[in-house]
Amino acid sequence: MKRDEMTPDLLKIGNRTFHSRLLLGTGKYKDLAQTKAAVDASGAEIVTVAIRRTNIGQNKNEPNLLDVLPPSQYTMLPNSAGCYAAEDAVRTLRLARELLDGHALTKLEVLGDPQTLYPNMPETIKAAETLVREGFEVMVYCSDDPIQAQVLESIGCVAVMPLASLIGSGMGILNPWNIQLILERAKVPVIVDAGVGTASDAAIAMELGCAGVLMNTAVALAQDPVLMASAMKKAVQAGREAYLAGRMAKKFYGASPSSPTAGVIASTRA
User: Fold this and answer.
1) Would the CA dihedral through 48, 81, 148, 199 be positive or negative?
2) DSSP state, 209?
3) Which active-site residues does the annotation give?
4) Whole-model pTM above 0.85?
């Protein structure tokens, strides 16, 4: 995929643009200082916030995430993690918009059960319809079903976010073919969400042509979260460059010399 080298390679979500294609969650770190250090090392401009688990002002006497990650420096992406019904997800994201002074960009999650955290697609679609109607810019966690992704895009979601594998599993992209099907049809950014375990997983997502990667557990539960955040930054950048460069074609075998042979004196035998 060739592009004009003078044109910045920006991630566009709705009417917003970003330089970083790595989105980072803010949960599961040992404290807010480590959260900030990891976010800074990742280069992420968009940080996700689980409204049901993280204080951004709703609990006045608790440490506030916004004190270390101020909205003036980072784009907050409040999410409805922990919601299992459309009504609960909508209520949670309305609260987030109020706490963030009318901030419309949001990540919709409606989960199917507490064990797998797999998306409940009927409830997800129901919530997306309500949120878009109310003026939210909805980025939506979904299954890797290309038909469901098209439905969400047709509703008006600004990004679709299929899971690579189950949330927190670290299993990487288990079905790259479905992700590819979604990419071929989508006109909005496709951002892999959930299941990334290490840097190579992030690079593969980007090499497929995804617009970005969202992760939390892979960084927060690494033995060195800050170092892993730095590794993920490099992996996303490398995967994106590889996609733009266009890989060589795969062949069953390819016994062609790397060096030119034209004009080389052939050996002779007596």
Assistant:
1) positive
2) T
3) 107
4) yes
